[in-house]
Amino acid sequence: MNLTRTRLRIMMDISSNYRWIDGHGPAFGWPGSEPRWTSSEKDAVGTAYSTSSVVWYTISHGILNEIYYPTIDRPQTRDMEFLLTDGETFIHEEKRDLKRKFEYIDSDALAVRLTNSDPLGRYSLVKDILADPHHPVVLMRVRLEGDEELLFRMKAYALLAPHLEIGGAGNSGAMLDVAGRRVLLAWKKQVSLAMAADCGFSRTSCGFVGHRDGWHDLMNNCRMDW
Questions:
Q1: Could you tell me the CA-to-CA distances from 141 to 29, 100, 127 in Å, in that order?
Q2: Is residue 13 part of a domain?
Q3: What pTM did the predictor assign?
Q4: pLDDT of residue 112
Q5: CB under 8 Å to 13, separation ≥6 — which residues?
Q6: Domain assignment present for 53
Q7: Is 23 contained in some domain?
Q8: Of 13 and 66, which is predicted with more confidence?
Q9: Is residue 6 in some structural domain?
């Protein structure tokens, strides 16, 4: 009886820390464009040093590609990249518009560093990627370097394409407020995926690819409207 009460108290404590964000209501454009996988040309395959980890990931074109969970033959994402803009004169998509550099952080470390740079040399996006050794989590440390005046005006938008249960169709998505920070959540059948940032997201959205998605929203006017 005491154990049951303890479990109930923990569940109530967790649920009190999050709430659903309604945003602008259901997304339009269902069911979206036909889902496709990313390039088969890879620069690296990564996992954690601990055998208790059940995630693997791939890297290509300067971005994070598939995340596999809970086995190495079950991809749950297509890719995750950043869109970068000053809000007025340019918008850059990492995998298409930036100069790429790939390196290992250390010869003995299961971690990679991706440096994607503006073709004009004004800024660079540096990402260190590794898998958590004890949890099904892929971690990414991101920093933006370059001309301070430009960086002050710039915004970085994280764009994630879930392909849960080995497919991009039939995925559901929503926004959550967790302990005062916005988190994106996707789910399909028994698998769920969350994307969060320690600094928090100032705005979030989720929608159908090809119709109401973050890529089309930003490419329209360098701003997030949806």
A1: 33, 17, 6
A2: no
A3: 0.87
A4: 97
A5: none
A6: yes
A7: yes
A8: 66
A9: no
Single-letter amino acid code for the residue at 145 = E
Long-range CB pairs of 105-113 (<8 Å, 24+ gap) are 105/130, 110/46, 110/47, 110/48, 110/49, 111/46, 112/43, 112/44, 112/46, 112/59
User: pLDDT class for 15, splitting at 50, 70, 90?
Assistant: low
Alpha carbon distance 127, 160 (integer Å): 15
**127-171: per-residue pLDDT in tens?**
999 999 999 999 999 999 999 999 999 999 999 999 999 998 899
Exposure on the CB side of residue 36, measured as CA atoms within 13 A: 7
DSSP string, 115-139: EEE-TTSSEEEEEEEEE-SSSS-EE
Residue 156 CB neighbour total at 10 angstroms: 13
Residue 9: is its pLDDT beyond 80?
Answer: no
Determine the pLDDT at residue 16: 58
- The mean pLDDT of 16-25, rounded to a whole number, is 74
Q: Which residues contact 176 (CB under 8 A, 6 or more apart)?
A: 18, 19, 20, 21, 182, 183, 184, 185, 194
Query: Tokens in use for 39?
Result: 């390039």
Single-letter amino acid, residue 125? L
Q: State the CATH number of the domain containing residue 40.
A: 2.70.98.10
- Please report the sign of the dihedral spanned by the C-alpha atoms of residue 69, residue 71, residue 76, residue 80: positive
Mean pLDDT, rounded, for 192-207? 92
Give the per-residue pLDDT at 18. 77
What's the total number of domains in the chain? 1
CA–CA separation, 71 vs 35, rounded Å?
22
- Classify 201 as helix, strand or coil: coil
Q: Which domain does 208 fall in, by range?
A: 18-221
